[in-house]
Amino acid sequence: MTDLDGRAGGTGRGVVCIGIATIDAVVEVERLPLSDERVPGVGAALSGGGTAATAAVTLARLGISVTFVGRVGEDRSGHWIRDELAAEGVDVHGLQLREGRRSPLSAVLVETATGARALVPDPGDREPIELTADDLERCAAAAWVHVDHRGAAAIPVLVAAGIRAPISVDDGVPDSPRAELRDVALYAPTVPALRRRFPAHDLEGSLGAALDAGPPAVVATRGGDGAVGVERDEEGRIRRFEVAAWPVTIRSTLGAGDVFHGALVAGLVEGRPLQEAVTRAAACAALSCRGLDGRSAIPDRGELDAFVADGPGGGRG
């Protein structure tokens, strides 16, 4: 049993996600436009987005009690963001609407032929998330805390407050602040983010360096190539595994990484071994790619169970 396995689920209930919540304005086009060119859209959607917020929606869809902690403006967009999360069953008592602040919004173009996207995020006023006493109380009662690039600054505060719930970090946004990993249970970057932070001769070296930074487990996502994970057991032995991507017809990859991380945390809260949790997370992320936006196609628990039971995509050691 790894240290991660021993901590997964903790003594609390549910998950707290800390980070960014946005509106995504998504337009599907046959090809990305050139400068000063008009290209007609062939589909469009207005959806909630944001790294930690979409992970929270995924957790809610999978039947896990989840609270979102973040900051948006007290503007029309902020109210819309809050109401969308609440409609998904996410507890939004930790989402503050701040007067005089501007809420985040992302403009997204999705290419029909490939499902690839061009993303223009406006992060709003970048107000730091300073945890309140109520936020810390929610984290203390949680089975798990999940943070993104905006929420990572809360890690030292959680540690100083004596929060014992395991913490996972989604690290995939370029030029974001680097989270301190010695107090983290799970570090979950993209492979490019991993290689930037822990440069080495090869991927194995980067994975090992990330483990040496403190977390008992590292899971790196590789987009259409699935994910690779390493974990260290209590005797210090390292186990490596790979999980393949699940084949689906892709409409858009928007939010797939956020969905992956929400589903991964869901699996760990349920007490699943890390490789099984990663396999289910990859399946959940694949299903989410059927939609144009990052949320509409996220499966519920029953749909994910059926997809995993019927389809390929298991891990290989």
What are the defining features of this structure?
single chain, 317 residues, alpha/beta, UDP-N-acetylmuramoyl-L-alanine:D-glutamate ligase, ten-stranded mixed beta sheet, four-stranded mixed beta sheet, 31% helix, disordered C terminus
Textual characterization of the structure:
The protein has helices at residues 3-7, 51-61, 76-87, 133-140, 155-160, 191-197, 203-212, 256-269, 274-288, 301-310; strands spanning 15-18, 22-29, 41-49, 66-73, 91-98, 105-111, 117-122, 144-147, 167-171, 186-189, 217-221, 227-232, 238-243, 315-316. The model is unreliable at 6-10 and 313-317 (pLDDT under 50). It is α/β, with parallel strands linked by helices and 317 residues long. The protein has one domain (3-19, 50-97, 126-311): Ribokinase (UDP-N-acetylmuramoyl-L-alanine:D-glutamate ligase), CATH 3.40.1190.20. The longest helix has 15 residues, at 274-288.
Task: Describe the SSE topology.
Layout: H1 3-7, E1 15-18, E2 22-29, E3 41-49, H2 51-61, E4 66-73, H3 76-87, E5 91-98, E6 105-111, E7 117-122, H4 133-140, E8 144-147, H5 155-160, E9 167-171, E10 186-189, H6 191-197, H7 203-212, E11 217-221, E12 227-232, E13 238-243, H8 256-269, H9 274-288, H10 301-310, E14 315-316
Parallel strand pairs: 1-4, 1-8, 2-6, 4-5, 8-9, 9-10, 10-11
Antiparallel strand pairs: 2-3, 6-7, 11-12, 12-13, 13-14
Helix pairs in contact: 2-8, 6-7, 8-9, 9-10
